[in-house]
Write a structure and sequence with these properties.
The chain has two domains: 152 residues, Nucleotidyltransferase, domain 5 (2-Layer Sandwich), CATH 3.30.420; 77 residues, SH3 type barrels, CATH 2.30.30. The chain is built from six helices and eight strands. The chain has a five-stranded antiparallel beta sheet, with no helix packed on it.
């Protein structure tokens, strides 16, 4: 779980990723320490899409958002943080062979929280706590006595320091996001689809129970029924007009030749008005992340 502004992270090893476990971790490891987040953003893992988690979010007043399917870039902060923590954890495991990897998580998190984050220019610990962490390597460094001040003066000074640091962090994050967008746009090439266009949908995994050997990764055709911001589209199977619609990112689509003009019309190709599908647009946007 990662805070979008401070980049403070909580990593909790669990034996299983069922809905009850995930919900319990969110409440006990985050809400109990830092309060209720305004927004909770996750991928579409079964535990995060469960009825239990939706009910907890509704009860606590958390706005739950999610990524589009098979599009990890939509939760890039967590993906990058996971890679960083795994790299630190690998160092610990290689050095201390024979110990369980989960026993190294607390010290891994110390290393992560104390290091300056590239996006903010500050260590997550400083933005979260208002001061840098004292590390084991600082044991031989003399501690400079702080000036004695009253609690009110200390609180005022801490508030001012944190306010200034968070403002700078926001600016740095904005610059980093713009740079990432520029790099992403430079690599991204693809058509712009319009409502009514036919497309194929990329599905790298075979459905449960289906033989992977005969699975076609490009499924379809589907038809675009809603064009949404951030390069996302709502699609529907035209042969099943009452089936659920799907919201997907454009890089999971590719053009499909539309039906020939001389083709016989089919009653199964009827599509309900777009307004009938608009309800799904309420379940996609987000601050706090998790994976």
């Amino acid at each position: 779980m990662v805070d979008y502004l401070t980049k403070w992270c909580e990593a909790v090893p669990v034996k299983q990723q069922d809905a009850r476990t995930i919900a319990s971790v969110i409440v006990s490891e985050w809400v109990s320490r830092y309060g209720v987040p305004v927004i909770l953003h996750s991928d579409q893992g079964p535990a995060f899409e469960s009825y239990l988690l939706r009910e907890i979010c509704a009860f606590l007043g958390i706005h739950k958002t999610r990524t589009t399917p098979y599009h990890p870039e939509g939760n890039g902060l967590v993906e990058r943080t996971n890679r960083t923590i795994k790299k630190i954890l690998t160092t610990f495991v290689d050095r201390y062979e024979g110990e369980r990897w989960d026993e190294h998580i607390p010290l891994c998190m110390l290393a992560y929280r104390a290091a300056t984050h590239e996006s903010t220019g500050y260590a997550p610990a400083f933005l979260q706590l208002g001061h840098d962490l004292r590390l084991p390597s600082d044991a031989d460094t003399p501690v400079v006595p702080a000036d004695l001040v009253g609690s009110n003066e200390y609180a005022r000074s801490l508030r001012e320091r944190l306010f200034a640091a968070l403002q700078i962090a926001r600016e740095n994050i904005g610059h980093a996001q713009q740079h990432q967008k520029t790099v992403y746009d430079r690599r991204s090439h693809g058509p712009v689809y319009e409502v009514g266009d036919y497309v194929l949908l990329h599905r790298p995994k075979a459905p449960p129970g289906a033989p992977a050997k005969f699975h076609h990764v490009w499924q379809g055709p589907y038809v675009i029924v809603i064009k949404r911001p951030n390069n996302t589209y709502v699609i529907r199977d035209p042969s099943q007009p009452h089936a659920d619609v799907q919201c997907v990112h454009y890089n999971q689509l590719k053009p499909y030749p539309p039906p020939r003009p001389d083709a016989q019309p089919s009653t199964s190709s009827y599509l309900p008005p777009v307004s009938h599908t608009a309800e799904i647009s309420t379940s996609n946007t987000n601050t706090l992340s998790e994976h």
